[in-house]
Amino acid sequence: MTDDLHYSRIVGAPPDELFDLLTSPGGQAAFYQTAEPGWIVRSESDVRIGRRWTIAFGRSPAELYRHDHVFDVIDRPRRLLLRTTETRLDGSTLRYETEFTCTECDGGTRITMILRGLPTDELRDEHARGVPNAFDQFERVVPGDVAPDGGGR
């Protein structure tokens, strides 16, 4: 196993709004979106302990990655803990843990994502390249978001 992947960002909204957006269909879909034309995202979830958040995403209906998350902890508005099974285009699967935390701070909320249990450094590095884009896309749908310095985005 590799070291955990930690990524965080300060977003100009309160923790309860960010948490609710992250667990909403629009927020979930935004997290997996890209600016790439034709990119497909399908998101379905039942936000209850033991239930699933399933995301299919990719360049075409014939080439979709799939992330199947099971909700293990839902502590609104502070923490989500998910067991993740990622199915890749070649049919292989990865199993790891995904945790989101929302912590109030000056300028808004620090939202942190931690991936635990990725099996190789290469897979950890691959996810490290994608996570900032996920946060960029998610931040675009935050209502009334302002930069931490008080200015607009």
3D structure, described in words:
The termini are far apart. The chain has helices at residues 15-22, 25-31, 121-140; strands spanning 5-11, 40-45, 52-60, 63-75, 79-87, 93-105, 108-116. The radius of gyration is 15 Å and the shape is globular. The protein contains 3 helices and 7 strands. The chain has 153 residues and is of the alpha+beta class. α2 (25-31) crosses α3. A hairpin with a 6-residue loop joins β2 and β3 (52-60). It has a single domain (5-140), classed as Alpha-D-Glucose-1,6-Bisphosphate, Chain A, domain 4, CATH 3.30.530. 20% of the residues are buried.
Q: What brief labels describe this structure?
A:
single chain; 153 residues; alpha+beta; Alpha-D-Glucose-1,6-Bisphosphate, Chain A, domain 4; seven-stranded antiparallel beta sheet; 7 strands; globular
Layout of secondary structure:
Elements lengths: L4 E7 L3 H8 L2 H7 L8 E6 L6 E9 L2 E13 L3 E9 L5 E13 L2 E9 L4 H20 L13
Antiparallel strand pairs: 1-7, 2-3, 3-4, 4-5, 5-6, 6-7
Number of helices: 3
Total number of beta strands: 7
**Strand order across the largest sheet:** 1-7-6-5-4-3-2
Mean pLDDT: 91
Beta fraction of the residues? 35-45%
Terminal CA distance reads 38 Å
Regions with pLDDT < 50 over 5+ consecutive residues? Answer: 146-153
Radius of gyration: 15 Å
The secondary-structure element order is EHHEEEEEEH
Shape: globular
